């Protein structure tokens, strides 16, 4: 039926939708592929917008409310676009007792942002992680996907400034 | 599937990852640690550059090899020379000349590892291949005894015999609760319903724990083999590994390992030319601590919000898609092939000091300890041996204050118990918990009230919100702890907090809520004076909390 087909097609002709589509198809387009599909969409686009949630909902036959419920339940998913660079501060126990709080305070003093916020110029998003498992490098941060260990607030800021 | 490749007498040096392979057998090997901690300090670049430099120097009898975690993460990036027992520390991509010189002159001396307590006091079972084999090379795994156990099980044992062997070994769940593994397998095997599923819980959520990550990054085939043996024992044909998305390197290595195992006939249909079929898929977590709880984990694999449900029925009876499901932790599966190969008796003889706890346990040492890293010790070793002999003591020679085990459901053990044996029962006796194996060592720069608040903040944010005692209770407990830390609480507040903590513990639905008050109980039990100092004297003895801090040099 044309209506159904129209609903099931990707929101735009952006090629990245293919990645999402393939990941869902590999799991039989069934409802249980929801989390994998959201991972695929976030990997492709950096965040999950309404189009992505609606598209995944249509293909997998999961009500939009449930898709939204899952996307907001898991802290790994983000519904907001990130800044140009991201800095994830690990808040694991080892990092916490080795100065992760000082790092957050340092970043707040310098950029005026708290975790889950982005600077006004859209350059930097600050996030925290429960534990990235790099405890021997405590305190650890992940800048644009690369882990940096045993870092002090001023060293981190110098590194961010150089980007 | 054609004939199995015969086990080779020595590891085949690996190329294709920037390493170097000699023509004949290698005189010495440079094993470059390529697990997450060292990779984040550019060890992948070191591997590539060292391979080039060894080739340039014409060292035709030197192999350069990628290996998994070498254990002593604190001193990374690491290069081990297994023929001489040398461990080169803090190597950088720009300081490779001395490494090349060492490789040029090194003579095998029979030492396998560095001669120091960090290594010599360990007993390695689950981590026996870690730092020895190339984590992605299935041939290398087989050259070290890999898949011998699976073949043995499939060709000469019945499922009941396998379950019996595991039961007799005394292996208990390494995810924390310590439920008998053999008993769990038997329950799943006897449960009605088909198909049955085998799940590996690799959602290592405890902050300060990285055992599973290291095992998956260093020896993924071992976990796949353990799962396949479990599947045979409970007569399952499908498996899932639920791994946190925060471990990209572990996920990538797992996916490669699954692909290679399928190609080599160790996953898929007709495994090792028998009529046993079993396949594994990876499912990514998405940053929810509660998904470590088995019913929540199952909900997440089914694509739903990861909220737990009341048990019984246990997953062993009604799990994934309502079918009987076996769920074990990464480390539990990693022990299975060794037990099959060496026998239940061999395993249960290890760690005799551990009473009802048999075998070994992998711990992640972190915090204010000199040798942070990954260690495997026999059950029953004392805390002192772990912290001081293996761990090398406290950073800057400061006084030991406490060791935190069991993550957010665990507790803090003070110095007076340093000589206690580390096993499931002893840890519970002192108000802590084995947990998955994170050990955070704290010195006098940590405030124990602040630590309790830290864990409560964690539980408050990670509470799934399904049951009110946990959802509301952890938030209230956090607020009360925060009040104490700010120096605004009264002794009545403390009393109220203890009451509420007991309610949350008793009435929460799952382990997250039930365990959340534990950090409060254990810090109150051993460090009540610190609470009183915050409340009555309005002083934080460790100088952490922002109320009139006492003088402590950091």
Question: Can you describe this structure?
Answer:
- The complex is a heterodimer of chains A (163) and B (554).
- With 163 residues, chain A is α+β, with helices and mostly antiparallel strands.
- Chain A folds into 2 domains: 2-73, no CATH class; 85-161, Glutaredoxin.
- Chain A is 47% helix and 12% strand.
- A 5-stranded mixed sheet of chain A has the order 2-3-1-4-5, covered by helices on one side.
- In chain A, a hairpin with a 2-residue loop joins strand 4 and strand 5.
- In chain A, helix 2 (16-26) packs antiparallel against helix 3 (34-45), helix 3 (34-45) packs antiparallel against helix 4 (50-60) and helix 7 packs across helix 8.
- Chain A starts with a helix and ends with a helix.
- The relative contact order of chain A is 0.12.
- The model of chain A is unreliable at 1-6 (pLDDT under 50).
- Chain B folds into 4 domains: 28-112, Glutaredoxin, CATH 3.40.30; 146-347, 3-Layer(aba) Sandwich (Rossmann fold); 353-443, Ubiquitin-like (UB roll) (Roll), CATH 3.10.20.600; 454-537, NADH-ubiquinone oxidoreductase 51kDa subunit, iron-sulphur binding domain (de novo design (two linked rop proteins)).
- Chain B has helices at residues 36-39, 43-56, 97-105, 117-120, 138-143, 148-156, 159-169, 181-190, 211-218, 220-234, 248-263, 294-301, 330-342, 344-349, 383-390, 424-429, 448-462, 468-485, 491-507, 511-515, 518-537; strands at 28-33, 62-67, 79-81, 86-88, 197-202, 238-243, 279-284, 325-329, 360-367, 373-378, 400-405, 411-414, 438-443.
- A 5-stranded mixed sheet of chain B has the order 10-9-13-11-12. A 4-stranded mixed sheet of chain B has the order 2-1-3-4.
- The termini of chain B are far apart.
- The relative contact order of chain B is 0.10.
- At the A-B interface, helix 3, helix 5, helix 6 and strand 5 of A face helix 1, strand 9, strand 13 and helix 17 of B.
């Amino acid at each position: 039926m044309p209506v159904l087909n129209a609903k099931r097609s990707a929101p735009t002709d952006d090629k990245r939708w293919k990645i999402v589509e393939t990941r869902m198809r590999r799991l039989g387009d069934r409802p249980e592929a929801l989390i994998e599909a959201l991972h695929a969409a976030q990997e492709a686009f950096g965040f999950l917008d309404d189009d992505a949630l609606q598209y995944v909902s249509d293909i997998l036959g999961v009500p939009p409310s449930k898709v939204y419920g899952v996307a907001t339940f898991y802290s790994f998913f983000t519904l907001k676009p990130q800044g140009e660079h991201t800095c994830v501060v690990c808040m694991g126990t080892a990092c916490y007792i080795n100065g992760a709080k000082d790092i957050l305070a340092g970043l707040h003093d310098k950029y005026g942002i708290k975790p889950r916020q982005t600077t006004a110029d859209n350059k930097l998003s600050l996030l925290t992680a429960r534990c990235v498992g790099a405890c021997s490098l405590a305190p650890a941060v992940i800048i644009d996907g690369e882990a940096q260990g045993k870092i002090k607030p001023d060293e981190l800021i110098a590194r961010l400034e150089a980007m | 599937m054609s004939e199995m490749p015969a086990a080779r007498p020595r590891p085949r040096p690996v190329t294709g990852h920037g390493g170097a392979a000699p023509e004949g057998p290698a005189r010495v090997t440079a094993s470059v640690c390529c697990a997450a901690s060292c990779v984040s300090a550019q060890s992948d670049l070191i591997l590539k550059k060292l391979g080039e430099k060894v080739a340039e120097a014409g060292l035709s009898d030197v192999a350069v090899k990628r290996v998994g975690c070498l254990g002593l993460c604190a001193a990374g990036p690491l290069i081990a020379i297994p023929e001489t027992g040398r461990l080169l520390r803090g190597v950088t991509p720009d300081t490779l000349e001395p490494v090349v010189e060492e490789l040029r002159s090194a003579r095998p001396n029979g030492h396998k590892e560095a001669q120091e307590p960090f290594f010599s006091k360990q007993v390695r079972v689950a981590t026996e291949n870690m730092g020895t084999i190339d984590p992605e090379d299935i041939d290398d795994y087989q050259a070290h005894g890999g898949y011998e156990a699976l073949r043995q099980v499939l060709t000469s044992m019945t499922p009941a015999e396998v379950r019996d062997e595991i039961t007799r070994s005394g292996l208990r769940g390494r995810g924390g609760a310590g439920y008998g593994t053999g008993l769990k397998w038997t329950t799943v095997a006897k449960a009605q319903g088909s198909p049955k599923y085998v799940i590996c819980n690799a959602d290592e959520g405890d902050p300060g724990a990285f055992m599973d990550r290291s095992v998956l990054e260093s020896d993924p085939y071992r976990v796949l083999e353990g799962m396949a043996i479990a599947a045979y024992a409970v007569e399952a044909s499908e498996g899932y590994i639920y791994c946190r998305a925060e471990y990209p390197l572990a996920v990538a290595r797992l996916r490669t390992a699954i692909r290679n195992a399928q190609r080599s006939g160790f996953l898929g249909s007709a495994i090792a030319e028998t009529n046993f079929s079993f396949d594994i898929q990876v499912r990514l977590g998405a940053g929810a601590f509660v998904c470590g709880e088995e019913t929540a984990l199952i909900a997440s694999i089914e694509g739903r919000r990861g909220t737990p449900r009341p048990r019984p029925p246990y997953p062993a009876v009604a799990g994934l898609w309502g079918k009987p499901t076996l769920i074990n932790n990464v480390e539990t599966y990693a022990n299975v092939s060794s037990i099959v190969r060496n026998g239940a008796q061999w395993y249960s003889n290890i760690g005799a000091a551990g009473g009802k706890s048999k075998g070994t346990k992998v711990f992640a040492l972190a915090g204010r300890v000199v040798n942070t890293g990954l260690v495997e010790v026999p059950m029953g070793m004392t805390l002192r041996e772990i912290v001081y002999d293996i761990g090398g003591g406290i950073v800057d020679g400061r006084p030991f204050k406490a060791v935190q085990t069991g993550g957010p459901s665990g507790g803090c053990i003070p110095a007076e118990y340093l000589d206690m044996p580390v096993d499931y029962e002893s840890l519970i006796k002192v108000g802590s918990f084995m947990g998955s194996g994170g050990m955070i060592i704290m010195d006098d720069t940590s405030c124990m009230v602040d630590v309790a608040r830290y864990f409560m903040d964690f539980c408050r944010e990670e509470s799934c919100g399904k049951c009110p005692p946990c959802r509301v209770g952890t938030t209230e407990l956090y607020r009360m702890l925060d009040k104490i830390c700010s120096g605004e609480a009264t002794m009545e507040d403390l009393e109220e907090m203890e009451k509420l903590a007991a309610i949350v513990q008793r009435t929460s639905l799952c382990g997250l809520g039930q365990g959340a008050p534990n950090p409060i109980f254990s810090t109150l039990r051993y460090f009540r004076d610190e609470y009183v100092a915050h409340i009555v004297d309005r002083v934080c003895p460790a100088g952490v909390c922002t109320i009139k801090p006492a003088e402590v040099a950091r």
